[in-house]
Amino acid sequence: MTTTTLAALVPLLPFIGALAVLAAGRTAPGFVRPLAILPTLTAAVLAVLVAVRQGGGRAVDAATQLTPTGSVPIDLALHLDGFAVLVAVLVTVVATCVQLYSTAYLRDDARYPSYAALVSLFTSAMLLVVYSGDLMVLLVGWEVMGICSYFLVGHYWETPEARAASLKAFLVTKLGDVPFLIGLFALAADTGSFRITKVLAAVGNGGLDHPTLIALLLLAGVAGKSAQFPLHTWLPDAMAGPTPVSALIHAATMVAAGIYVVARLLPVFAASGAALVVLAAMAAVTMVGSGLAALAQDDIKRVLAYSTIGQLGYMSGALAVGDRGAAVFHLISHGAFKAVLFLAAGVVIHAAGTNSLAVMARTGGLARRVPDAYWTMTVALLALAAVPPFAGFFSKEAVLVAAEHTALGDRTVAPAAAGWTILVAGLLAAVLTAAYAVRLWLLAFRGRGAEAPDHGRQPLAMTSVLWILTVPTIGFGLTAGLLGDWFDGHALTPSLTTAVLSTGVTLVGGLVTYGAWRHTTALAARTPIGAVTAHPGAEPALVEAEAMRSHTAVYGTIAGAPDPADPGRLLLGPLHRHAATGFHLDALYSALFVRPVQGAARIVRFLDRAVVDTYVNGTGAVTRLLGTAVRRAQTGNVQTYVSALLAGSLVLAIAAVVFANVNAGS
């Protein structure tokens, strides 16, 4: 088979798998799990083969016109460059691991067939975004992911948290998708094509008439999909979905799509220095703000959610300084270790019976009970904190090196202000990342107190994928020097200055957090706190669902009174209560947008019921009264009818005489 044929099969196989799972869900439930895993696994093998054949060399393009549009044509096109083939490998590998993990995690879930089908469709949509060479076809995958996320985040629809989170995720991402769609149309109007290669060629020839406007419109969609400030608020709430869904969304799909699209269309953004400065400011606020928020969260999954937002900020920062190689390098590296973190968190939640770090801090023996999750999560947290020699160190260094070169004027793609902004924010975010990573590890695995009830041994399907994904978490960064051809042909090696600075601030952040934890450990035993635990024999998904249903009560206990066991409270001080709520952005949006819309809806409702309905009901009432009067006049008595006829004739005659005399006198 040709490379393009193999590439076409990569997104097609998960789509066929989704249809097959839906068909087998009722008729042959025993085939659901194989049909969920095998198509995605085959797609992963083919994606690796496509990457090897492409080899980081010249991009492979193929296209066929779908249908004549009469204006700008829309083509079913493939564009396989180094970025596309590597990201496709990441997506398929993570999706395969998630499907395998889910077979045990949702073993007794009656809705597993629809869940597995949606995960396969989600994977197919992301692969369509990755391989597509036409912006309109890319948009199809972009929107399908939004729909799938709505259903997957709301999987536990019985809980109000899941219903609210799924609706919020859908609405916030759609809020960004509207200007994104307008930006795509404006880009096609300026360049005369939706084909990515033709668009970039037109941009290179100066054929873009409105670069700043188009770039800002596209950035709105990226901010929504990739959870960047100010449209990032949906991502922490999306933790109401099952843990495997969180791993898929945060590691390889959905949030990675926005970053990938900007990387694909980077020359469009580079044509406007103002747009790059806006992107840099957005990335800086995202990095620092999410780091502070992560340091104040109690729910282990919300810590990881804010961590994802911060790491996406690093990727946006690399794009803001014009280095898409560093951005995609960090995207792939982050995808590996973040998948490990979320899937290991699912094992930890099952073992502890709660999402609460404060409860885990008062639970002993957790590391001993879940050794696979303990060791793999430790490695992934080291990668997240950018500790050498793990993958996160090399990919984060690539971002900081790109910012350094831009700030010092060695690169002129972006303004120097963008470089300084990303460099300073990136170093500050490195301190915060190390702090919340160490805090999570200490509270989860170094708790002191009675052991929580034993929830049983974790299935092999859940623990094996942790080790599979740990391999690239450890080794991917070491291959950076060998993958230069896939990343625009330049080596992504750290510089001495940024390596020393970032490693130094990482150590400072980690050591300060450890010291704060030592200081607060003695106080922890004096503050009793209730634990949320599930039945020892419960399935992992049921444990999480129960913890989520009890989450409000747990959060209220922790947030209602200061928790001296949490080093985050000591480090943040008065800022803690603001950071715990995400700096009140949800409350701000509620005041600025939700309440006015609800108020306007109440006014419209009043007008509809009190005014419009009154007129409509009044018309009906008058008609009904007239009908009643006419009906009563129909007595069936002929004498009555003749008398009425004669009386009417007499009245008409008198009226005619009177009007005739009046007219004659005048």
List the helices and strands and how they pair.
Elements: H1 3-27, H2 32-54, E1 60-67, E2 74-80, H3 82-105, H4 112-131, H5 135-153, H6 160-191, H7 196-204, H8 211-225, H9 234-237, H10 243-251, H11 255-264, H12 266-270, H13 273-294, H14 300-320, H15 324-352, H16 357-360, H17 366-369, H18 371-384, H19 391-407, H20 416-445, H21 460-475, H22 496-524, H23 540-549, H24 551-560, H25 567-572, H26 576-580, H27 585-633, H28 638-665
Antiparallel strand pairs: 1-2
Helix pairs in contact: 1-2, 1-4, 2-3, 2-4, 3-4, 3-10, 3-15, 3-21, 4-5, 5-6, 6-8, 8-11, 8-13, 10-15, 11-14, 11-15, 13-14, 13-20, 14-15, 14-19, 14-20, 15-18, 15-19, 15-21, 15-23, 18-20, 18-21, 19-20, 20-22
EC number: 1.6.5.-
Pfam families: Proton_antipo_M, Proton_antipo_N
Domain NADH:quinone oxidoreductase/Mrp antiporter transmembrane: 132-403
